[in-house]
Design goal:
By secondary structure, the protein is an alpha+beta fold. It has one domain (about 20-125): Aspartate Aminotransferase, domain 1, CATH 3.90.1150.200. It has five helices and six strands, in the order H-H-H-E-E-E-E-H-E-E-H. It has helices at about 1-15, 20-30, 35-45, 85-90, 115-130, and strands at about 55, 60-65, 65-75, 80, 100, 105-110. It is globular. Mean pLDDT is about 90; it is low at about 1-15.
């Protein structure tokens, strides 16, 4: 009986078909979110330390340098950056015009992406991760 359950679990996972790489994730995102996600990815990568790598974590793209620094993802009406709650608190005044949750910033698809702000937030996250 346990073997049957394990087999069913495996099938369910395969059907979901989560992306195995960041390139695969990005390729599955429809426009216009894909364009914004590509810009976000470039900003995150340019602000990450040398040697940082891309990975899929919790089903979405992430940048890892020892540990995951930030996550980023696309949704129907926005792209999100997940830089941790501490970084969001640090940048709260600059993030007033965006929807926020504890560890996430939502950037609407109909608004220009604030690339400079994203880079500064990633760099702040790199600094906080180095001190922890």
């Amino acid at each position: 009986m346990k073997k049957k359950r394990a087999a069913r679990k495996g099938k369910a996972k395969g059907k979901r078909g989560g992306a195995k790489t960041v390139d695969e994730y990005v390729s599955r995102v429809p426009e216009p979110a894909r364009g914004m996600l590509k810009k976000m990815r470039a900003a995150v990568r340019s602000a990450a330390p040398k040697g940082a790598t891309e990975t899929i974590s919790y089903g979405i793209p992430a940048i890892r340098h020892g540990k995951v620094l930030v996550w980023f993802a696309a949704f129907a009406d926005h792209c999100s950056l997940f830089p941790t709650a501490a970084v969001i608190d640090e940048f709260k005044p600059e993030l007033r015009r965006f929807s926020l949750s504890k560890g996430t910033v939502h950037f609407p698809l109909d608004t220009p992406l604030p690339v400079g702000l994203i880079k500064r937030m990633v760099k702040a996250r790199v600094e906080t991760s180095a001190s922890s």
